[in-house]
Automatic annotation (TrEMBL):
It comes from the Eukaryota. Residues 114-136, 699-722 are annotated as: Disordered. Gene3D superfamilies: Zn(2)-C6 fungal-type DNA-binding domain (4.10.240.10). Residues 23-52 form the Zn(2)-C6 fungal-type domain. This is Zn(2)-C6 fungal-type domain-containing protein.
Length: 758
């Protein structure tokens, strides 16, 4: 100890330096994430005093208070044409094609909430303003890739979810239900939010209401834990490896295999051109003539093709055994590809197996969510084989081989861009890394090994390759969407309005071209399947492109176009499942691109419905003399259809129950808009009812499949309920768990991995 010369106080030895706390004291006490604003969002909603440790650095902190007088509203708003300021409600042209009634029109700018943005955000994330009448079209769009504070990227356990990953769709519903208080997001309806917070706050409101809410929250947490435990039991009972079946022979009758292969050829091959059909049928018959002596690579192709046919087969007899057999074939193919690398495996046949496996994994929900990782190997295998160079560079290559290589390369590119969008990751390669042309416009029977010259049909003629050709032509805008959304640099914020229009127009034009070039020789069911599948592969990019901007149309009519386009795409994606039974089975059983389309679209519709209820006000829907508008009825029906599909996915084997819970809460929130504080009880009750129904469905399916469903503890749902004795930490939930926290759990996160910072 050293005495200070300046006074009699004792100067202590220097303490070990600790990292200063960044969260406010109230958030640290509640153990919740703080947005570091002044005051922060949690304190503002709960009416608590927000205090920060004096040692924490204030730099970069966002002030949620009135903007300085020098920063007037016009400094943050772009110049907008007068005719844009009064825009009609974004009618979904996919569903309602007629003129909308006069009651459906509204002004996007009739309610302009106060814009509270930080000066830093206005500089870094704002629109580039320009004087003159072209400001609205030449201005750059707001930065929707500002970083983690905008909720656009998240790390869950060991996986990084980029901006186009479906978990970020939750943010859009959050903006509709509870506008977040953070950088570049507009604060709206603060009074209503404070009312909601007061209902959830045990220190305010009616004591009986709070007791009911406390019990409901406890039961919800217990049900979530029970669903998670049952999900683990179901997944652990499923066979995950095939080491005991090294050859996994075709254990089905040839007649059944014939039907399944025919289903694959007539449904999938029009979009994903992996096989030359006449050549494959020759290989198929040769294998069945002597299966024991057949080539193993031929067996793998036949197994994967058969498995893909099984997924859309309408016969539901012994589906458990059928899907178990199909998954076993997938594991066998994966084992073969993962074995010791040999030069003989770098071949067209091996690449066909890889493409079929990627497609089958997503169709059968076997590792479909990690397809982007596997696509890296597929792309590099194809490039090592030279598929990224056009066959015209190889003078000795046969006509048939060259055409197969073009088709395979187009399929690899299609699977790659779809997987990148689902994973929220940049595409594995760019357009300047290949020069292979698109497939030729001809039918399979017009080319064989003896063909010496291509006799390509006119571009207006419809052939077996028409759909793949249009998908290939739309690859440039879709690659650009995936790259801009998931690049490290904020490329999306630098996109001009004209670029946005151009990308949207290109993809929409491809949608129309695909619909117009469906083979007329096909039956109506097959043509409908082709149209819906091609529409899925294209339209979801429009939804991803416009969804981050659609919510801003509430306060800035410049984004009305994005609001309409995202709603059109979402409505089309939801409605397509009910139009074709075979396509419905594919999207309800599948994972990857087949599953994510449902999450993005349903949350987009839920967001639009909640925005509609908020804009119209509660009086319209609670007045006996007034009926809800046709627009709201349309949105309600679409959300109800999304709920049906979500429930059906759970019945068919889906173990994620949070999406159905979210949609149920959104539906109930729209139904009870403007009600008194008991509306929060109704929201909690809807979540509980959803979880109870989902758990019963999962339990029934597990029993049918012979899965051990012994509970690992009931979660403490006894009748002797005492909130004081309940420890929410046993359910991996925060001790200050609220309905808001529940709603915004990403729909596929584990309970113990909700987007925590590394």
């Amino acid at each position: 100890m050293v005495l200070s010369s300046g006074n009699d106080r004792v100067q202590s030895c220097p303490r070990k330096r600790h990292r200063s706390a960044q969260s406010c004291q109230e958030c640290r006490r509640r153990k919740v994430r703080c947005d570091r604003s002044e005051p922060c969002g949690h304190c503002l909603l709960s009416k608590k005093q927000c205090h920060y440790d004096p040692r924490s650095a204030p730099s970069g902190r966002i002030v949620n208070g009135p903007a300085p007088a020098s920063q007037s509203a016009h400094e943050f708003a772009p110049i907008i044409h007068a005719q844009v300021a009064s825009a009609p409600r974004p009618q979904a042209s996919v569903i309602a094609r007629g003129s909308s009634p006069a009651s459906d029109s509204f002004h996007l700018t009739r309610r302009v909430p106060d814009v509270q943005l930080s000066s830093q955000s206005s500089h870094d994330n704002g629109i580039v303003r320009s004087e003159g009448p072209r400001a609205a079209t030449s201005a750059n769009l707001d930065n929707v890739a500002a970083g983690p504070q905008d909720g656009k990227i998240s790390l869950n356990k060991s996986r990084l979810f980029g901006r186009s990953h479906w978990t970020n769709s939750t943010l859009e519903v959050a903006l509709a239900c509870r506008p977040l208080i953070c950088s570049s997001i507009i604060l709206a309806n603060l009074q209503q939010l404070q009312k909601t917070a007061a209902v959830l706050n045990p220190e305010t409101g009616n004591a009986t209401d709070n007791e009911v809410l406390a019990r409901l929250k406890w039961e919800i947490a217990a049900l979530l834990q029970k669903c998670k435990s049952l999900s683990k039991n179901i997944k652990s009972s499923q066979q995950t490896r095939c080491s005991s079946f090294p050859r996994a022979y075709l254990s089905i009758a040839k007649e059944y295999a014939d039907n399944m292969v025919h289903l694959y050829v007539t449904h999938f091959e029009s979009v994903f051109r992996i096989l030359h059909i006449p050549s494959f049928w020759i290989e198929y018959e040769k294998y069945w003539s002597d299966p024991a002596e057949g080539e193993y690579i031929s067996q793998l192709k036949i197994q994967l093709v058969t498995a893909l046919g099984m997924i859309i087969h309408q016969d539901t007899i012994n589906t458990t055994d059928v899907y178990s057999t199909a998954r076993q074939w997938l594991y066998a193919a994966q084992e073969w590809l993962s074995g010791p690398l040999k030069k003989s495996r770098i071949s067209i046949g091996s690449l066909q197996v890889q493409c079929l496996l990627i497609l089958a994994r997503q169709a059968l929900s076997v590792g479909g969510d990690t397809a982007w990782i596997s696509m890296g190997l597929v792309v590099r295998t194809a490039m090592q084989m030279g598929l990224h160079r056009d066959p015209k560079h190889f003078k000795r290559m046969g006509i048939l081989e060259g055409e197969i290589r073009r088709r395979l390369w187009a399929t690899v590119l299609e699977l790659n861009v779809q997987a990148a969008l689902d994973a929220g990751m940049p595409p594995t390669l760019s357009l300047d890394e290949f020069d292979t042309e698109g497939p030729s416009n001809l039918n399979d029977e017009d080319i064989d090994e003896q063909t010496e010259a291509l006799r390509e049909l006119p571009a207006t003629a419809t052939t077996d390759s028409s759909l793949q050709r249009f998908l290939f032509q739309s690859l440039r805008p879709r690659l650009e969407v995936a790259q801009r959304m998931n690049s490290i640099t904020p490329a999306l914020s630098e996109m001009s309005y004209n670029e946005l229009i151009a990308l949207t127009t290109s993809i929409a034009s491809a949608c129309r071209s695909c619909s117009a070039h469906i083979l007329k020789t096909n039956s109506f069911e097959i043509a409908s399947f082709h149209s819906n599948l091609a529409d899925l592969l294209l339209r979801r990019f429009i939804l991803h492109l416009h969804r981050p901007l659609a919510g801003r149309a509430r306060t800035n009519p410049q984004y009305y176009f994005s609001r309409k386009m995202s709603l059109d795409a979402a409505m089309a994606l939801i409605s397509s499942a009910s139009k074709n039974a075979q396509f419905e089975r594919l999207v309800l059983l599948g994972a990857g691109m087949f599953k994510n389309r449902m999450i993005h679209a349903s949350l987009a519709v839920a967001s639009e419905l909640l925005i509609e209820v908020e804009e119209q006000g509660p009086g319209e829907y609670h007045s006996p003399s007034r009926e809800p508008s046709g627009y709201r009825k349309m949105l309600t029906e679409a959300l109800r259809e999304a709920l049906r599909q979500s429930a059906e996915r759970i019945r068919l084997g889906e173990t994620n129950v949070k999406l159905h819970m979210k949609l149920s809460m959104a539906m109930r929130q729209a139904e009870v808009a403007g009600a008194h504080s008991s509306s929060m009880q109704q929201l909690a009750q809807s979540a509980k009812e959803s979880l109870e129904a989902s758990y019963a469905t999962m339990q029934a399916r597990a029993t049918h499949e012979g899965t051990d469903i012994e509970s690992r503890g009931s979660g403490g749902m006894s009748e002797d309920f005492d909130p004081e004795d309940f420890d929410p930490e046993s359910f991996f939930l925060d001790s200050n768990f609220s309905l808001d926290d529940l709603f915004f759990i990403p729909a596929d996160f584990d309970m113990d991995g909700a987007a925590r910072q590394p």
